Amino acid sequence: MFKKILKIVSIILLVLLIGLYTLFTIFTAPKSDEAILKAYEKSNIQPNLTHERYKDFLYRKISIQNDTVLPTLVFVHGTIGSLNDFSKYMADSLLQSKFNMIAYDRIGYNYEDKNSVQESIAFENEMLLDLIKELPKEKVVLVGYSYGGPIALSVKEKLKKIILLAPAVHSTVEPMPWMLNFYKWKITRWLVPKVWKQASKEKISHREDLKKFESNWNITPNKVVSIHGTSDWIVPYENSKMLEEQFDEEQFNLVDLDKGNHGLVWSNFDFIKEQLLKYAD
């Protein structure tokens, strides 16, 4: 009887694990164009979703063009991430009235992307500069989240503002979660969903790549704001504290989110929206 019960329990647990894995894979996979646009069904202004080319790469860009006089928020997502991370901001009526807005999928994170992540802040910098080349730079506000933080901060052209959200900018405080071993170990790599393989590659190489930039973050003509949760363990708060030490106080402003975590883009939407609105004029 005990063996029968154990067998039944084992089967139930296995089914639950397979179900959770399937849901996790579906939930975190890049969304189709149709799924992306569903987030804007009630939006006052309908966005324009386009497929762009940079060098030999195709990527998606979503944009809301309200008025050419307005400044433009350009959102740069992290690892793992997509242009969909910022849909709540781009669909917000007040933000729409104050800004034009752009978000895009970085290479390796596009829907059914056949390309691999480039594992290079320098490459991401060049791609971002290509994306904003037609915009008046004095009206561009870059918003870089997580891995998108160093990409935004690496831009040395004079802009309206650079806003960092939990930026991963210093190698010495770059954690390597144990779960990365599932990607590192060949015997378990097959279990890792495709987009998470891309994120794992980028995460593993990020620490070394940061060393090429981290001592020179303050060599920029731009004023920088960093918003960071004090309880963030994925990208520790120390990242922003170390940035604060590099910059003069008139050029850098650190905004603490007391007990905030790495999901601040979603969990602290109202607060971040309020911060963005400060740079609407």
TrEMBL record:
Pfam families: Abhydrolase_1. Residues 71-197 form the AB hydrolase-1 domain. InterPro entries: AB_hydrolase_1, AB_hydrolase_fold. This is Pimeloyl-ACP methyl ester carboxylesterase. It comes from Tenacibaculum platacis.
